[in-house]
Inverse folding.
């Protein structure tokens, strides 16, 4: 059973989607998948990003691709890993850039503290089969994340949208409201981090923008 554990404001914003045929099809797919395969994150954590960071809390959006597909890794937040687990390569590079940018040496891979401060850590695809990266692409999650971005674009509160890599950048087309800011670079994976992610200083860029708008900066 898929549990829609999301904040009250998200429930209002996303009500039309969860009443749609698109959601019914996706929900049926997930229920059938869970009968024949192990799915990450658990069905209780699929919507964790929207539970930690309610709609009116959102200051920053970091788009990931799909969840980690190994045991005890995915916790429903993009790039985040359950505390105590090894730090995956992309997250390790994110922490390297954080240290280079702000001098912060972070070791805890669980990013829920970011989420509680208003950083929506949303994957484009919110679930995956164990051991099969990208296995839930084109199964309905794209329509959900498209809808979320459109709702956030309508917000009259300035938001920083971070698009790392070409896959995340597919969602840029939904951000048309000029009050928002977009930060775009290559993906932090070892294959592409040296093509523009390293040296992009996204963390100081975010905080400078937020402070300039009168908001509290993120404690990264």
């Amino acid at each position: 059973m898929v549990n829609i554990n999301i904040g009250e404001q998200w429930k209002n914003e996303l009500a039309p989607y969860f009443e749609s045929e698109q959601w019914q099809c996706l929900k049926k797919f997930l229920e059938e998948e869970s009968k024949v395969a192990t799915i990450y994150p658990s069905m209780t954590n699929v919507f964790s990003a929207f539970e930690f960071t309610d709609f009116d809390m959102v200051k920053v959006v970091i788009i990931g691709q799909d969840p980690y597909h190994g045991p005890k890794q995915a916790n429903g937040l993009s790039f985040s890993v359950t505390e105590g687990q090894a730090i995956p390569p992309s997250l390790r590079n994110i922490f390297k850039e954080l240290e280079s940018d702000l001098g912060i040496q972070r070791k805890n891979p669980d990013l829920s503290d970011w989420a509680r401060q208003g950083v929506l850590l949303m994957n484009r695809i919110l679930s995956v089969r164990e051991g099969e990266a990208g296995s839930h692409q084109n199964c309905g999650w794209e329509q959900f994340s498209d809808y979320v971005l459109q709702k956030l674009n309508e917000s009259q509160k300035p938001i920083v949208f971070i698009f790392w890599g070409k896959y995340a950048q597919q969602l840029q087309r939904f951000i048309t409201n000029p009050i928002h800011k977009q930060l775009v670079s290559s993906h932090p994976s070892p294959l592409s981090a040296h093509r523009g992610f390293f040296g992009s200083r996204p963390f100081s860029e975010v905080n400078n923008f937020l402070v300039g708008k009168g908001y509290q900066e993120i404690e990264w």
